[in-house]
Structure formats: C-alpha cells, structure tokens
Amino acid sequence: MAVETSAMRRRTFGLVGAVILACLVVQGSGCRSSAPVQAEADRVVVFSIDGLGADMAREWLEEPIVRNPAGLPGYVKRGVFVRRLLPVDPTLTAVAHAAMATGQLPDQTGIVSNVFRWAGEPAGHPVSGFDFDFEPSTVSQFARGQGLQVGVIAWPGVDRNTPGREADFGVEWPASPVIGSTIEWLVADNAIENDRFPVNDGIVAKQWTVSIEFPGQDLQEFGVILYDGEKDERGRYDTVMVRGPEDGQWQPIDSFDWFPVHASGSHDSGHPQGFGAWCKVLELDRHRGSIQLYRGAFHGLQAYPEKLQSELEVNIGFWPGVPDDQMLREWWVDSTRGVDLETYLEQVIRLEEWLASARKFVIENHEFDLLLCASPTLDRFLHSNLLVDERQWTYSPGRAFAAREAGLKVTLTVHKAISELWTGLNQQADALVVVSSHGMAPVHDGIRAERLLVEAELALPVEDHAIGGLLPSSQVLVQASGPVAHIYLNLVGREPLGHVVEEESDELLRRAARAFADLEVDGEAVVERIVTNEEAAELSLSHPNSGDLIVFLNPGFSFLYGTVGPLVEATKFYGQHGYLSHHPEMHGVLFARGAGVKKRRVDEMPATDVSVMLRNLLQRAQN
To answer: Which residues fall within 8 angstroms of residue 330, CB to CB, at 6 or more apart?
Structure first.
C-alpha cells in the first residue's frame, strides 16, 4: 500500500562499481582483503562535518577565503574528492553515521531514525539512534579486533553505553547540561551596596548574588559587582567584577565579554566532578546601575579514561556546551529577548575551537591507529539560521543577510579546523578523511503528527502535559525525527497495552496514511511519500524497528512534537535534514588525502562505502 504525493526519483548503486571505487581510493592495484600486505597508513583520522552538503562544499571551494592548501583545495589537487556522497534514507545524523561506520544500510544496522521504537519495547518508550547498538560490526570494532588503538572525539554512536560502542579512549558527546542556561536581570533595586570598592564620582558599588542549584546538592553562588572604576567626574557604572563559587578573589571582566564560572557537582555516576558555564554581560545600564547577564548552561566533560579527562580539563578547559538554540530562537522573534546572533555565533566558534584543541592534543600526545572525530557546529548553526526562504517565520532581507554573514564566519572556523587537522599530522605516513553525513534544506512549516492522529480519531491525547502527547492505549503511536515519522500499530501480542488485532491493521494503516497524504499548506503537498514496513524494503528500511507505516515530508516541512498547539505552525528553526536522499540538498561530500590515498575525482559514491575505504586504509599484514 504505497502512497506517493509527488514523483520520487529512485537511485540504484552498482555494487561492483562501488567496491571498485573503494579500492581505487587506496594506493595500489586492488583491494587487500585476502593477501598479506604492508599497512598503507600508520594512522587514519576521520573528520565528520555534520551538515556540510555537496552544494555548500562546492561554494566553499569557489570562495577565495578558503584557499588554504592545507584545507579542502589541497584535497581536490592531491587526494580523493567525491563531489556527492549519497546518503541512506532517512538522511538523519544517527542513521548516516551508522551506515558510514558499518558499511550497511538501515535494514541491517537497525538504526532507522534518530528516534524510534526498539522492536520488543513499547512503542511509547522511544530509543535514540545515537544510543542503540549497531547490529553489524563497525569500523572501530574492526580496528580493535585487529589489535589497533581507536580513539573517538564526539563521534556519534561510540559512547561506551555498551561494549560494542566503546573505543580505547575518547570524548563522549554530553547528552544535556547539568543545569540549563538562563538570563539574570540584576536590577539596581535588588542590589546591596558594597563600600569596599572605590566610591568614584559619588557612586557606590552594587553587588548581586546569583544562585547555582545543582540537582540534589547544596546551593552554590557566584557574585557580581558593578561600580564606577574611573574617577573622571562622569558618574557612571563602567566596571564589572565577578567571583565564582570556587574563586577566592574578585576578577574584573571586560564589559560585554565572556567569562567562565566554575562549580563542583556530581556526575551521573555519583563521582564528584567539576562543571563550568560561560557567561556574558548582554546589557549594562551605566546610569541606573543594572546588568542583563546571560548565565550559560553548566556542563561537565565526559571523557575516558580518567587520565584523558584530567589532561583535557587542565590543558583545554571544561566542555563549553552547544550553542543556545532556544535563546537564539527567542531573539529572532523579539530582539529584546534571548541571545543575539553575535552571541550565538561566539558560542558556535568556542565549541569548534574546543573540539579542535582536543583533536590537536590527542594527536600530539596519545597513540592511536584510528581516530574518529565529528563536528556538529555547522549543523547546529544551519538548523537555527538557514534563513533563505520568504515563507520562513522571521524572514526578512536584513535578517537573511545577517544570518548569511554569520554563516561565513562559521565556514572560516570549520575550514580552519580542517586545515589544522592536516597540518598536525605526519603527511607522509597518516591519512585524513573528511566526510559529511548529510546536507541541509530550509524549513518553514511544522506538522504535529500526534495531533493529526488524534484528529483522525486514531489516537488519544495526554491531557495533563505542557506539550501533550499520546496515551499508551492509543490505536496508533508515533515517533518522529525531523521530517520522517514512524507510525506503530498498538498490536495485541506486540505492545504491552496492545489491543489492535491483525484484522484491523490494514484499515487503520489506510486511515493513517490518508490523514497524512491529505495534508496541504497553501495548496502545497506536505507529504512526499508514505510506505508500509514491507514497502520500505525499497528504501532499505524494512526492519522490526521501523514503523508499520513510515511518512516522509517534502522539503520545507518538518514534524513538531506534541498535541498542544495548531496542527500546522511556522517553525522556530530554519534548517532541516532527514528528507529522502534523492534530494540533492541532502547529499554529503567526501575528501581524503595522505598515505595510502590515490588522487581521484569521483562524481558519486554511496555513504556505505566510507566503511570500505577506512577498512582498506587500516588493513594490517596478517601472519
């Protein structure tokens, strides 16, 4: 029962041609899977840049600002350049990295979305594709099986949750901050006077206390002082001092500059750990004596073994956290709220620079044969700032220009990271592979899948929740990620509260498919394709983890969570991926250079061949 609302071009990969291509990117005349050979590369470093689409990479190569031969132009001249890396469906980060790491399609990895129902578990209790064990062997498992040392820096899916997802050492991607960010309004009426500081021009210093409340632990505090630091007869507040919970002395900060606050807490394991937050003065009322302070989220580094964690904290600093998407979304709507684009951009750059420093430290100080690295910064930026379509909620020519200029700075930061990676390696003995898991497309409208199912009388809503949801006793349940939704029947014998019998299945699926297929916004079809689990074999998605029905939206649309709110609503984010892989905007890119890599330009290559390439580069002599 296939339901298609627009034509879909199908792509087939020639298996023989794909294998030949993977062999050609390694120096020599053929693959090395059977005969003893000398290793081609002493060390292999993989750098995944989430969100770098093929078209964007082409634009980068055309920009004079990225002409550094250590960067992408050098790959084109001396290494492998794959213009279009063809991703698997759906084009989501967890799915893509599973395919690249294993060389297998989603119906083999079991990673069918960023969020899905694990077969055998209740449909209303989702699992993350970033936490789910790959069923086939990954390239990191392959390398460790050969006795090679494997390191990881924020690579999706290698996070120590299970033995199969562990490297010899690594930096994990923290799931969430221990304390979220907030904006503190430090107003004059709530301050106390502090006469220990100079009283210049008749102005007495004002002092505030900001509380830091770690869950289940004693309250911690840091102080902020504002005073007139210059005796110039101008009578204004111009100097800010801060003192963190673990600081003995007051420290001056530059107005509107960032400063770190350190605190002590406990990790999920219960072990004591240091945490840090980057904070910034957003506004300073020099006459009334008040401050608008952005108190960033508190994060803790998660690295292993403990020696590596200690080394990184001492030499690089605490994990800086991800850019504050929610605060930026508030600012795009109302410039008096949230954090501005420049502040957000500074967070993006800080994260990329921290990751670059971590990569550099590991390369210089730790032994490894394979190092898997990933950068989410471009992806995060584009999700929040791909303002290019007049249908987007806060679009205006001025805002689009601002977002484009900020994007140029992100481009420079990421390209600098690529260049520094290459210059930090032994270019005669090491190989570097730069790959992207997917591209990005603009999005303007969101669809609440749960609400749609409720309106179609196929599901029951949760009433006592801020965003709503579906009751576990609903006839159908849904797990959505970006523009793809897996619809699960509440089947008797499969679900704990199952009450749908087999005889009802076809009719319920038809009703659900029709509810989605009929969606239109301003005369434009919202849904591109709907398939049953069986029909999903054409997309390599027929797996017990997949929904009984899978819905793919057209570019420009994405799913929203919950049942509260309108069925269709303008999105507060502006870039999305996860669309069907035949869309050129979803295509990734691959570059490789160094030992064992033969110069070659390739028009197209399936993402599953990344694993083949890496295994060939890592092949060791067998006795």
So the answer is: 337, 338
C-beta separation of 332 from 225 below 8 A: no
**Exposure on the CB side of residue 518, measured as CA atoms within 13 A:** 11
Q: Is 419 helix (H, G, I), strand (E, B) or coil?
A: helix
Listed residue (447, 322, 435) closest to 384, CA to CA: 322
For residues 578-607, b (16+ Cβ closer than 10 Å) or e, as one string? bbbbbbebbbbbbbbbbbbbeeeebebbbb
Query: Of 190, 146, 551, whose CA–CA distance to 370 is shortest?
Result: 146
Distance CA 5, CA 8 (A): 9
Residues 6 or more apart from 94 whose CB is under 8 A from it? 111, 113, 114, 128, 129, 130, 132, 156, 157
- Unique residue bearing structure tokens 């394979």: 370
Give the model's pLDDT for residue 38: 38
What 3-state DSSP class applies to 44? strand
DSSP 8-state code for residue 402: H
> In sequence order, what are the beta bridge partners of 447?
559, 568
Tokens of 498: 């199952």
List, for residues 104-161, the tens digit of each pLDDT value. Answer: 999 999 999 999 988 877 777 888 888 887 777 889 988 988 899 999 999 987 777 6
Q: What is each CA distance from 169 to 302, 368, 532, 540, in whole angstroms?
A: 11, 9, 41, 33
Are 144 and 168 contacting, i.e. CB atoms less than 8 angstroms apart?
yes
**pLDDT, tens only, 287-298:** 888 999 999 999
